[in-house]
Amino acid sequence: DSGVTQTPKHLITATGQRVTLRCSPRSGDLSVYWYQQSLDQGLQFLIQYYNGEERAKGNILERFSAQQFPDLHSELNLSSLELGDSALYFCASSVGLERSNEQFFGPGTRLTVL
Amino acid sequence: AQTVTQSQPEMSVQEAETVTLSCTYDTSESDYYLFWYKQPPSRQMILVIRQEAYKQQNATENRFSVNFQKAAKSFSLKISDSQLGDAAMYFCAYRSGGPGGSGYALNFGKGTSLLVTP
Predict the structure, then answer these.
(1) Beta strands A31-38 and A42-50: pairing type?
(2) What is the predicted pLDDT for the residue at A45?
(3) What is the largest CA-CA distance in chain A?
(4) pLDDT digit string (tens) for B29-77?
(5) How far apart are CA A4 and CA B70, in angstroms?
(6) Could you please report the per-residue DSSP string of B31-56?
(7) Least CB-CB distance to A108: which of B43, B106, B109?
(8) Would you give the DSSP letter of residue A85?
(9) Which of A40, A72, A103, B50 is deepest in the core (most CB within 10 A)?
(10) Per the CB < 8 Å rule, is B106 touching A35?
(11) pLDDT tens digits for range B64-95
(12) In this complex, do A56 and B91 lie within 8 Å of one another by their Cβ atoms?
């Protein structure tokens, strides 16, 4: 158990809908990363937050957005869902912004878009 | 952008034998980290081993060791005395040593599926 929690574990929805994925980082970790794992794209970085502020962006679609709240949990919002958005979404957390900080992964949320 | 290539989609090894998974990467940076992650059927991402580019000594964690060739931009993972529990997808990943545009995000290869046979 990495100490990172993600809810829900599974999510099934329809095209055009909007969903919210939630991540609680390890106690004391200020940085949160979101990754998407799909058959087509593999594992790719979406976005990073540090202490409530957006820190870095990867291949995140405009239909996707995220935020980190004062209690440091983070949410990833996916809207106007398409079949291709079906994937496993991981959250990872690290202590801070030091180059040596390790990222700890949550168990992931499996999103299925029908 | 850095690219990570794992040229072996699948590998097979017998229990107690040794197997080597290959990874190459492309970067113009001199300061970076390399990682191997294991993803078993549970889908949990588990860090196996990490290597800092400025350290010449190859990292070792119990039965897992790496062969880091900086000039060749190669980072292979050797698993000794393979066990049934080693069966999983293995991902090689690159992380910049400086925050840059993508922070300290991990850049993953496509993965190698390792099958362990009794």
Answers:
(1) antiparallel
(2) 95
(3) 41
(4) 888 999 999 999 999 999 999 999 998 899 999 999 999 999 999 999 9
(5) 33
(6) SEEEEEEEE-TT---EEEEEEETT--
(7) B43
(8) G
(9) A103
(10) yes
(11) 999 999 999 999 999 999 999 999 999 999 99
(12) no
Strands (E), B1-118: 3-5, 10-14, 19-21, 24-26, 32-39, 46-52, 60-61, 64-69, 74-79, 88-96, 107-108, 112-117
Interacting residues of B38 by C-beta distance below 8 A, sequence separation 6+:
B45, B46, B47, B48, B86, B88, B89, B90, B91
Chain segment A36-77, per-residue pLDDT in tens: 999 888 999 999 999 999 999 998 999 999 999 999 999 999
Residue with token string 């690159």: B94
CA-based diameter of chain B, in Å? 46
